[in-house]
Amino acid sequence: MGGQPLFILDEDAQRTHGKDAQSSNISAGKAVSEAVRTTLGPRGMDKMLVSDSGDVVITNDGATILSEMDIEHPAAQMIVEVAQTQEDEVGDGTTTASVLAGELLAKAEDLLDDDVHPTTIVEGYHEAAGLAQEAIEAEVLDVELDDDTLVEVAESSMTGKGTGDVDAERLAEVIVDAVRHAKTDNGVLRDNIEVHTQTGAATSATELVEGVIIDDTPVHDNMPHSVEDADIAVLDAELDVKESNVDAQYNVTNVDQLNAALDAEEQELSGYAEAVVDSGADVVFVTDDVADRVASQLAKAGVLAVESVSSGTAKDIVETTGAKRVGSVEDLDSDALGFAESVGVEKHGDEEVTFIQGGAAAEKVTVFARGSTEHVVDEIERALNDALDVTIAALDAGGVVPGAGATEIAAADHIRSKAASIEGRKQLAVEAFADAIDVLPRTLAENTGLDAIDALVDLRSRHESEGIAGVISEGQTGVVDNPIEYGILDPAAVKREAVDSATEAATMIVRIDDVISSS
Q1: How far is 419 from 423, CA to CA, in rounded Å?
Q2: How far apart are CA 457 and CA 64, in angstroms?
Q3: Segment Disordered: which positions (predicted)?
Q4: What pLDDT sits at residue 246?
Q5: Which end of the chain has the least Cβ crowding within 10 Å, N or C?
Q6: pTM, whole model, 2 decimals?
């Protein structure tokens, strides 16, 4: 080579390797984890997130916080992905997964300082994660998942979240009713449950609607705003004068020709209205525009028409009412009509919404969530969606386990009991994993006002003597007690997913010893 240097990377590229890369990545992951740690549990605090444009989000939902944060560090983004994976898979436990991933990184950092090889840490963590899954499975309660139990699951997921002027139990009952409506022999159909938010009332006004709620309203003021026993049509068509696809000009030379053109146009529009009326439809939902003259004629005939309905909304209406979605008025007949017990337009606050209830197909239900402000209803919507997801997870994905940190205490104890049989330095990583899991009940204790160390000692002692112990929020502080007696239950699926996703993220970050970034 004649002593000439060999350039592999661009001269503007930046490279961090060895312990510097590991330290940077671990620090970034820990920082993201710490950002959501104080939100954990029933006494968790909220975060206010302000965007560049001034939009404000107030929440203690881990997935929302991390998705709204402007995070650039690639390792930190992996912790965000942990939360997103948790949210996608089971709908809750995002803060748990993020906090656990951060603590696994913190323990790994100590092991690296003690010259434990990253591969050994990774192997130990994966073995410990398997032991944790064994412990979670052993904690699954042998109980019937009746409505009372499911209400406890839903309520546990919402405790500590912004639920306005009503306690979580009231909302949990609405959630369980919704889940029962959507339950089939093949499981709960999550897509058949919607959450529709509306400001203008207290949270206690939240209710379950057997049907769908849409923001679209009648196209004409003189149309009926309430229709009982409604025959419903859904049209993928424009009820307006057809425009020619040919760029042509028409030369009108006298009044008779103009009148003939206007008569033809009027006849076309009248034909649309007559076709709808003749089909027997009381309500018609149109995905395109409805001409003013068509709307006027429909109003005179007592037909409620809604225009510019989105494709997704039209699909919901079809699934609720059993209507057939047709592409033209010529295809509209009695066989294409669906049915709903009522279609009504109601004003809530300054806005009107349309309720379609008691449909013949009856596949859709909607949780109509109320709140006094946009910030309140946004947080209630997040809480309700989490509650829906965990209730479904409990039914469809493996039952429930004790909450309040009890399952984590059991998992840590099981891992420690097995660690002594593991040879070599891998044992250190397994024990470190158990210590990392302790961060969850310890954080719960901190957030309820207890001394974290004393609480952890009490939890371990109570678990050893009675087999179960959790941190219960009571008044302005907390106590160590049996969470089952307080109705604090979590889906086993949430715990399993949190362990898996946190372990995967932490081990992936630990294995990185070189970071190369180009300009």
Answers
A1: 9
A2: 33
A3: 9-30
A4: 47
A5: N
A6: 0.80
